[in-house]
Write a structure and sequence with these properties.
207 residues, alpha/beta, 10 strands, 4-stranded parallel β-sheet
Length: 207
């Protein structure tokens, strides 16, 4: 038996509520298989009022005798993406802009938060779907954690305009305001609306 096969796998998980539907374990198992990484990836359902405690419990659950390797990080899904940054000692610029994170990495010098939602979506739209975003009029439906991570990269992609439509218009307006300087820097027009008055004639609609 090789030394690598005897080594306990690094552990990762996706945390959410609910989380049973998540395909992250399958997706990351495929990533690991293709890249030769030795990992174990699971799902953890966190109580709505116990997200921070759930993360700490996941880290503390490493147990060599039980074959549980060290916890290296986790993905965060609904409804906890806005709760990640206060727990992290460090964060990427895109996570700070979004004020939301979907990735939490456990480093020796502190937890690191990142947001890959927007970068992944923009790349998927442009490269896999073959739909260019530069100069396009985009309607972004929703203003939750996922939308918060998406808006910055949409602006960076050079859309002509992005309209954020949400059931609660004030929540959309807060998201737009947080990205106002970023949009000005990239020459992108931002607007916030309710769902009923979003308008029409958009080139791309993202739900």
């Amino acid at each position: 038996m090789s030394a690598d096969s005897q080594r306990m796998p690094d552990r990762y998980a996706v945390l959410g509520h609910p989380v049973a539907h998540s395909q992250s374990p399958f997706i990351h198992a495929e990533f690991a298989r293709q890249t030769g990484e030795h990992i174990a990836y699971g799902r953890i359902e966190s109580p709505l009022d116990g997200f921070a405690a759930t993360v700490r419990s996941f880290i503390a659950s490493a147990d060599a005798a039980a074959g549980l390797g060290p916890a290296r990080g986790c993905n965060i899904t609904v409804p906890f993406k806005f709760q990640v940054l206060p727990l992290a000692q460090r964060a990427s610029a895109r996570a700070v802009l979004a004020q939301a994170a979907n990735v939490l990495r456990f480093d020796a010098d502190g937890w690191f938060a990142d947001n890959t939602d927007g970068t992944g979506l923009v790349r998927d739209i442009q490269q896999h779907a073959g739909v260019p975003l530069a100069g396009q009029r985009v309607l972004l439906i929703g203003a939750g954690g996922a939308a918060a991570g998406v808006l910055g990269p949409l602006v960076e992609a050079g859309c002509a305009s992005v309209t954020v439509a949400n059931r609660t218009r004030d929540k959309a307006a807060q998201l737009v305001q947080r990205h106002a300087a970023w949009a000005d820097q990239h020459g992108v027009a931002l607007a916030a609306t309710g769902l009923a008055d979003a308008g029409e004639a958009f080139d791309v609609v993202i739900n």
